[in-house]
Amino acid sequence: MRVVIGIVIVVVALGIIYWFIQRRREWDRIGADLNMTGNVQVLDMSVSNGKAFINFAKRLTNPGKIIGVVANEKQEQRLKGLIKEAAVADRAKAVLTDVTNLSFADHCFDYVIITGLQQVKPAITRGRVLQEAVRVLAARGTLAIIDSGNMQRYEQLLEYYGIKNISVRKINGQKVIVAKRI
Question: What residue intervals traverse the membrane (predicted)?
C-alpha cells in the first residue's frame, strides 16, 4: 500500500512540474510570437504570480521597459522582490494603479498585455479595462489578450474602440487575441 501511495505522489509531482514547464514555454512562445524583444515599452495590465512578467522582462534590452500593474501593496512588494531576484530592475517596474484608470500618458506603450480579463468583475468593467488598454497603446502598437473566454465580445469592443487589425490565435493551446493599431 505504501508503495502505491509513493508512486501516486511521484506521478502527481511530475505532472505538476510538467504543467509549470509547459506554462513557461507557453509564455516564451507568446513573447516570441509577438516579437516582444529589444527596446520596446510594454505594459502588463494583469500581473498574477509574476513569472510571465519576468519572462517578458528578460526579452527586453535597456532602455526597453516593462511595467507591471499590481492591485495592492502586497503584490507590489512581491513583484519588486521577483524583479530584484531576476536581476531585471533596469528594465522592469511594478506600479500600483487602477486598471480602469491607468496613470500613464496616451499612446506610450508598444505592447499591452492583459491576462485573465474574465476575472474582472462586474463584466461591464472589462470594457473599461480594454478602453484604457487602447488609450495607452502606441501607434503601430500591439495589444495581446490571453483569456479563456469572451473572445468574441473582446473583439467587438476593440473594433468599437477603433482597433481594426484583430486576430485570434492559438499559441500552445491558449487563445490569444492579437490586436494591432495601424
Answer: 6-21
